[in-house]
Amino acid sequence: MNLAFKYVLFAVASTLVNLLFQYISFVFYTGFLDLYAAMFSGTLAGLILKYILDKRYIFYHQPKNKKDDGKKFALYSLMGVFTTFIFWGFEIGFDYLFDSESAKYIGAVVGLSIGYVVKYFLDKKFVFRD
Description:
- The chain is 83% helix and 0% strand.
- It has 130 residues and is mainly alpha-helical.
- The chain has one domain (3-127).
- The longest helix has 32 residues, at 66-97.
- The protein is elongated.
- The relative contact order is 0.15.
């Protein structure tokens, strides 16, 4: 399977998991800072899934041990900080600018799409370089 196709497929899967966890978060909590709580839970769920898929099927990385895997996940997460700001910026911006319940999700998809492209190159250069 083509690498670009797999990466897009995994990005879509991670985006869907992210949005699902956000939706679930809103089901259980609506109140002060609910959007931020939802974005955090979605980001964490999507990050874990994307790391597992990228590590195994995009970069074919075999960790030496659990410590190596933990270090790699920490570096992978660090590279995701910048791209998370892109994603959160779009989601918050869409939620603020448009008076629609779906606006935040549309913003999330736009932000995640841009972020995943940037993240691939960061991960290739700094995380999974062998």
